[in-house]
Every structure is written in structure tokens, then in C-alpha cells.
Amino acid sequence: MKQELKIPKVFIIVLNWNGWRDTIGCLESLQKIDYPNCEVLVIDNGSADDSVERIKGFLNSPPNKLRAAVYDLQFNLGFAGGNNFGIKYALESGADYVLLLNNDTTVAPDFLTKLIEVGESGKEIGVLGPVIYFFDEPRRIWFGGSRINRLRNKATHLHYGETRDLGTKFFETDYITGCALLIKKEVIDKIGPMMEDYFLYYEDADWNLRARKAGYKIVLAPAAKIWHKISASTKEFSPNYIYYHVRNGLILSRRHGTVLTKSIVHLLIAWTLAKQIVKLLIPSKRSWAKATINGISDFYRGRTGPITLNS
């Protein structure tokens, strides 16, 4: 008798924060996927609007056929904190894989099938993700792999803005963005959940690097495709955006850099601070300079978690 192959169980975690319209759009696209063994967990991260009621209303109305549940956390636990709640639930519920998916995305019907095909092709593959395109420019790439610069504490998207086809063969990359990140249960069992002290940005890069240190490959699966509206939860290049990128990039360097790169980073910080002091004299650059200085200062003070800056 021919034995049936097990279809891995996937839990898709969609984190919502005051963004029910985007979340419902994401759920509408997930209704059309062809993967037969998945459930969706919508985690509301302390929204101040009526997101929970709106999303529950959508899920409870025909023709919705998703196997989905909504959890209201009451407080904003950050990207890692909110997702970790869902990850814990997924693992306790028998997940073989967990997929983190931004609420402001839409997906191709076969994206998850393509991801699982790659994930199941090798035990050494631990973290994987799709090619991500701009929602408003469906052929233009937003994420097609990545490179982490340990000296600049910066993670760069490869193929950003390009319109060429990346083919169908998967390849290794430095990290998979938390916008759409599929990870195996065994990897989470080995390395633990995401670090919550970043609060926002770089926690996904940290998770990838920990997986690689544990011996797993990080790969991009170009045959899997989704589209991203680009998050508006923190305005790009706002003081908060600058602050978190500066502070958290330094935290990432401290945790994963070599002795040499850490030493060079400290020298680069001195140069960066000198430039920011000059920028304080320029009104148009003052808020960015303050955010950069605060980020560096809080790194050395050991301050982590959320912060609100005045622009």
C-alpha cells in the first residue's frame, strides 16, 4: 500500500496594529491560496481603533472560508512581542512551519505551496521567503534577497527596484525579511523566539543570524511571490524610524559581530556623532540628528524596547 505523504501544517501569523483595512485585504488574498493545510492567526497589537471588531466581522461573514482566529493583546508588544504570542500558540497547536506575514501584503495563490516545496527539499533549510514586489508597481522588486553590512550595521535589500525575473531556483541569502518569513518548527525549538528588546526593526535579521549560527540555511524562493504596500506604522525616515535603525543596528552588531568589526564600529560611531553635532545647526536636519544621537546614546546606556521621540 502506498503511504501518503504528510502535508506540513503551517500557521500564518498576521500582526495588526490600527490597520484593519490592510489586514482584511491580506486575508482576502489568503482565501485564494492553494495550500491545503494552514491556519491563520490574526494578532491585534493593541489597536486604538475598531480593528478587532472589523476583522472578526469579516472572518464571520460569508464567503470567508479561512481557518482563522483573532487575538486581541490589548497592548502594543512590538513586532517581535506580537508575533511571539502567535508563534507560541502555533507551536502548541502542532505547527510544522510558522509564516510571519505583514498585514499590508497580498499573496499569489501558489506562494505558500512554492515555499513549502523548497522547505521540504532539504533538512538544512531553516528559514525561507518569497520575492516581494511593490503593491503599486507589481513587477518592481522590493525584496529579492539581502546582504548585511556588519560595519555599517545595515541590512540591504538586493534587486531593490528591479523589474527582472529572478527565475525559479532558490538561493541562499543573508536574511529573510520579517515581512514574509517562513521558519521550521525545529529551528524555533533550537534557537527560541525573536528577541523582543529590539521592539521594531532588526529583530528579523537577528533571528536569521541565530538560525544560521545553529547550522541552518537561509534561502529565497523566487517562484513564490507576494506584494507589499510598504508599512505606514512608522513613517520612513521619521525620527522614530531613524532612532530604531541606529540603536537596533548597534545591538545587532554587538550580538553578532566579530571582535574586529565591533572595534571598527565603535570608531565609526565617533565619526557619526561628530557629523550629527554639526547637523544640529541645520534646522532641516536637526530632528534626524537628535534621533541618531539618542539612538547611539541609548545603545551605550543599554536601553531597549519602545520609545517615542518628538520630531
UniProtKB/TrEMBL annotation:
Calcium among keywords: no
Annotated protein name in UniProt: Glycosyltransferase 2-like domain-containing protein
Domain (Glycosyltransferase 2-like) ranges: 12-191
Keyword terms: Glycosyltransferase, Transferase
UniProt organism field: Candidatus Azambacteria bacterium RIFCSPHIGHO2_02_46_12
Statement: the UniProt record of this protein carries the keyword Glycosyltransferase: yes
SUPFAM superfamilies linked to this entry: Nucleotide-diphospho-sugar transferases
GO molecular function per UniProt: glycosyltransferase activity
Family statement: Belongs to the glycosyltransferase 2 family.
InterPro entries documented for this protein: Glyco_trans_2-like (IPR001173), Nucleotide-diphossugar_trans (IPR029044)
